[in-house]
Amino acid sequence: MGGGLQNATTATNITVTGGVSHDVRGLIFDPVNSTWYYGTAGDGSTSGDFGTVSFNGTTATLTRLLSGVPAHGLTFDPFTNDIIFSSGNVVDQFDPTSGTIVSTFTDTNNPGDHFDQSAVDGAGHLFVASNNGNLVGIDYDSAAGHLIGGAGSTVAEQFLAGSLDDIAPLSGAGGTPVPEPASLALLATGLLGFGVLGRRRKQV
After folding, report:
1. 124 lies in some domain
2. How is residue 41 annotated by DSSP?
3. Which mean pLDDT values do the consecutive 10-residue runs of the chain (204 residues) have?
C-alpha cells in the first residue's frame, strides 16, 4: 500500500538511510498524497524530526521536512487531510499541501502532560492520550479553518487511567471503517462532553 512494505507475512529487516536521526518513533501513511511520514521526538520531548519516508525494497529513505517539532505520535486526519503529531504537552497540525504547521494546541492547564498517540474520528474530533493518564479531546469541526487551535475549537480533558499511552484510530488508514456499537457509544459520550463544555464557555 502506498509504496510501503509488501510482505506482511514474515519479518523484514529495513535499512534506514537519509534524514538526521534514525530513531523513528512514529510512522503514518497519507492516502491522499500517497506519502509516508515519520517522527523522531522521544517520549515527552517537544523536539524531534518530521519528514517523509520512501520505501524501496528493504530500504527506507528518510527526508527531513521539519526539525525541533513534537513529532512522536502521528495521525492522518481524513477530515482536513492534515497530519497531526504530538509530544510533551503540544499538538501540531501539519498541512502537506503547504508543507507547514498550520495550527498548534499547547495544554497550558496541564503542562505535565506527555502526549503520546492520538486518533481522529474523521469528523473534526481529535483524541490524544497522555502518559500521565489523561485523555484530551479537541473539537475543531466548527473552528475557524478546521484548525485544532483555531477560534471556536473546544477542549476537554479527562483522567482515564494511570500510564495511559496509546489510543487506536476510529477511522482513516489503520482504523475500523464502521466502529462497533461500544465505540460509537464511547464517542457519543465524549462529544456530549464537548457540547456541555462549549455551552458553559459561551455563558461565561
Report:
1. yes
2. P
3. 55 83 91 95 92 91 96 95 95 97 94 88 92 91 95 90 69 45 48 48 44
Q: Strand, helix or coil at 169?
A: coil
Q: Which alpha helices (DSSP H) does the chain contain, by range?
A: 181-203
What is the rounded distance in angstroms from the CA atom of residue 98 to the CA atom of residue 84? 14
Q: What CATH number is attached to the domain comprising 106?
A: 2.40.128
Reading the block at residue 142, the C-alpha cell is 466548527
First to last CA, the chain: 49
The tally of domains found in the chain comes to 1
Asked if 145 and 117 touch (Cβ cutoff 8 Å), the reply is no
3-class DSSP state of 191: helix
Name the CA dihedral angle for 102, 143, 132, 201, rounded to a multiple of 10 degrees. 140
Q: For position 164, what pLDDT does the model report?
A: 72
Confirm whether 191 is domain-assigned. Answer: yes
| CA torsion angle 121 148 117 60 (round to 10) | 100
